[in-house]
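Section: Multi-chain targets

For targets with more than one molecule, the full set of components is provided together so that the structure can be written out for the assembly as a whole rather than chain by chain. Components appear in the order listed by the source. The example entry contains two components.
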Amino acid sequence: MRRLLAFFLMLVVALPASAQPRLITDLSQSRIDISYRFAGAELLIFGAIQHPGGRAPSELPGIAVVLRGPAEPLTVRLKERVAGIWVNTEALRFESAPGFYAVATTKPVRDLLDERNAAIYEIGLAHLQLSPATAADTETTRRFQDGLVGLRAREALFVEQPYGVQVTDNVLYRARIPIPSAVPVGNYQAEIYLIQNGEVRARSTAPIIIDKSGFERGIYVFAHDHSFLYGLAAVALALLLGWLAGAVGRLRGG
Amino acid sequence: MDLYLPIAEMSVNAFVIIALGGLVGFLSGMFGVGGGFLTTPLLIFYGIPPAIAVASSATQVTGSSVSGAFSYFRRGQVDLKMGAVLVAGGMMGSVIGSFLFRWLKSLGQVDVMIGLVYVLFLGSVGALMLRESIAELRQSRAGGAPMRRIRRHHPLVAALPMRMRFPKSGIYISPLAPFLVGAGVGVLTVIMGVGGGFIMVPAMLYLLGMAAGVVVGTSLFQIVFITAVATLLHATQSQTVDIMLAVLLLLGGVVGAQFGARAAQFLPPERLRLFLALLVLAVAVRLAIGLTWTPAELFSIQVALS
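Its structure, encoded as tokens over all components, is:
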């Protein structure tokens, strides 16, 4: 870590100056393997800001780090009491909701960016563009969107960390993003934004793959690609275990 | 020890799941029931998605019933002819059940329906069992011989056409009746993840009027087949069978069942039936509370089916 930081510092000093600031980014790992012991992970996203002229400004730069999982269509349902029982009644469909979304910033999003820019870059849980597909009034859509975000936030799948980005010497930045065990698999993207005076001045991205590995992946692929054989295997395994237990029980019982 | 379930896509504490399987196995060994009606709700309380709990619990019931079915078969207490009719009915029922399951899933009502069906069936079966075992206890206290049933089978069953002899069960009835019973249980197996013994045994005794000696063996015979079919249907239609989850449950279950069977020898059968009735009712009440109390999360998310 320390050596990496030193390397970055060298890089920042050595690179030729340009008018626009640039962001250099790296990840603690570009692939997260989900194995049988997987109980969550932590991803370290870090890098350096290359300021024009090579001089770091005296004020703290604004940084937003976003980690976004694969988007998919989904339906959000609302339970209501019908005849004493809680039943799903209203439903709203969203065309593209990320399965995972984490944002870490140097200070709260509203102090970094205005509403318009936050919405353009989808920075902050309140600014996700989920593309509602069901016709409903704004108030209802808002309510369902808040419901979705709240639910995912409590499952640790949506994370917002104001002050989650640490900046050293106004040049180096780093953020730790917690990954829960229920994280969906797929291609992820880390997006890092340099924000000054409410505007995005520089942006960099880095891809991450989160996937099951080894035995877990084998089972998952088997279950989806050869579902009939998988079912047969499950039945055979259950029969074998049950029969074995019976045989052992008879032996012990005499 | 945390273990990641590849199909449920979440990590669980393996010891908790094994202990859960052990508890269910103990009770099922003690009462001679498959225990699916306990596994599914307990898995859902633990946080496993209901669809995966139902499918994996069906797989577990296959394993926990097979050795019982074998030992009844060896003792000649399985009516194969009756079993074949029940299995045929059960296959039809489980296919119907899987379509019903799919339809409910598309409506977003599958969780509520699983809960409702559970409360309905466990509530009524539990109440019936409780009434009967209390009557039995009273009678044995009074010292009288247990009341004999005069009626062989239900008049509705006797009215069905195409009668057939089932020598081992000692009855002469239309195969339509056991076919329909099998179909009904098949629907429940797919939707609830249960073997359905708690419905099948009373139906065989009081509806079909089968000889008591072959009832449990034949019911286990049908359960092994139908839960296997249910596993296959869930595996091919919705990929909700988690093999790891089923194996964990079975590991605990097979050990628990041995202890349960031993414990059962120290309790008189009418006392056992009373406890089973109370247990079934307790699960029904717990599920009913879950349906009526304000849930912690009013919103739920369903990822679009691929």
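Chain B touches chain A through 58 residues (CB under 8 Å).
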